[in-house]
Amino acid sequence: MNSLVRKISIVSGLGLFIVSLFSLSFFSTDTLHAQTLGTTSVNGIDIAIDPSNPAPGANVTVSVESYSTDLNTASITWFVDGKSLAKGTGLKSISVTAPVNGKSIQVVAAIDTAEGANIKKVVTVQPGDVDLIWETSGYVPPLFRGKVTTAYQNKVKITAIPHFFSANGKQIDPSKLLYKWKNGDTVLGDQSGYGKQSVIIAGSIIPRELDIDVLVTAPDQKNIAGETQVAINADKPEIIFYPDDPLYGVMYSTAIASALRFFHNEIKVVAVPYGFDINDASLSYNWNINNVSQDNLTSSKSIVLRVADGQQGSSNIELSMVNSGNKILQGATAAFTALFDTTKNTATSPTF
User: Fold this and answer.
1) Pairing of β 129-136 and β 155-163
2) How far apart are CA 257 and CA 335, in angstroms?
């Protein structure tokens, strides 16, 4: 009797053990299956766009990648704004065109894996257009309509002009955006942040290219971002000569290229230091006439050429200009030939 009881107990215990194993296996499989269908964070599939911050109208590649399942054997259907765009086995990427500013498109990858899982990955493509403008501390004359290149050791101010639009089509105030500035691989942390639309960079004593990058994001709208770059190369400043007329003043519309011809006794010529930083430094001038230094003109940006009546000939005029402050790389030399003829002493205007 006792022996029979013991056998029954052993069998009952074994049955309980088997049932427990079966139940554990069943619930583990069901839980894993539920996570695969409903939680994208654990299925090991990523969706991405390239470029990550496209400009309007840019070609964008949308792709999926996985390290947990073989997508090369999966059937993938791509949808753009709800419309089927493409379908194929192992079709892991498609190309779309970024919409105009203020618009967005939704791209969905519907994936049927070889293991039988059905997974959807969604990404929103919303462009962010950013322009960069820059200006240098280098000098240009009043009313100058062009843009002078930056010279060695000049300060350069770069300003980002983002064109971001919210979902309702209203442009987002640039002062309410986040700016991350970089020069090469160096993040300009002290000049980056909320509303920091501009940066100012001083040129190095070792001439090198400024490789400026800015990433602009909207704090309250994660889908909107824009990134752009600009390369700025410094160059030598230059000197350009202009006649300084006693009646009309400096004739900025008539630069002296290589020769100045005049027929009266006196003419004044002014040297304009294009690109030199004259805001926080002083310039020194070394004028030479026929290789003879004019030591009395070391602080003068102009020279007066005088010729007696009945003379004709030519003189070589040369100017070396340097920044006598802490910008040792700023220097330039220029020259022209003065051709004079006062044998008739006419009032004819100079020619160039």
Assistant:
1) antiparallel
2) 9
Q: Are 269 and 256 in contact (CB under 8 A)?
A: yes
> 160, exposed or middle or buried, with CB in 10 Å at 0-12, 13-18, 19+?
buried
Q: Among the listed ranges 152-166, 171-185, 218-232, 334-348, which one has the minimum average pLDDT value?
A: 334-348
297, 311, 314, 321, 338 from 305: Cα distances, Å: 13, 13, 11, 19, 9
Report the CATH fold assignment for 238-341: Immunoglobulin-like (2.60.40)
Predicted pLDDT of residue 32 = 24
108 band by pLDDT with thresholds 50, 70 and 90? very high
- What CA–CA distance (Å, rounded) separates 155 from 157? 7
Q: Residue 6 and residue 187: Cα distance in Å, rounded?
A: 77
The count of C-alpha atoms lying within 13 angstroms of the C-alpha of 43, restricted to the half-sphere facing its C-beta, is 25
Least confident interval from 39-43, 96-100, 123-127, 312-316: 39-43
**Beta sheet of 93-97, edge-to-edge order:** 45-50, 59-66, 93-97
- In 3D space, the residue among 163, 69, 80 whose CA is nearest the CA of residue 123 turns out to be 80
Domain boundaries 40-125, corresponding CATH code: 2.60.40.10
Domains 129-232 and 238-341 share a fold: yes
Whole-model pTM: value is 0.70
User: Does domain 129-232 match CATH 2.60.40.10?
Assistant: yes
Higher pLDDT, 307 or 15: 307
DSSP summary character for residue 309: T
Residue 230 has pLDDT above 50, yes or no: yes
| Listed residue (339, 258, 269) closest to 303, CA to CA | 269
Q: What confidence tens digit (pLDDT) does each residue in 326-335 have?
A: 788 899 999 9
Give residue limits of the domains in the chain: 40-125, 129-232, 238-341
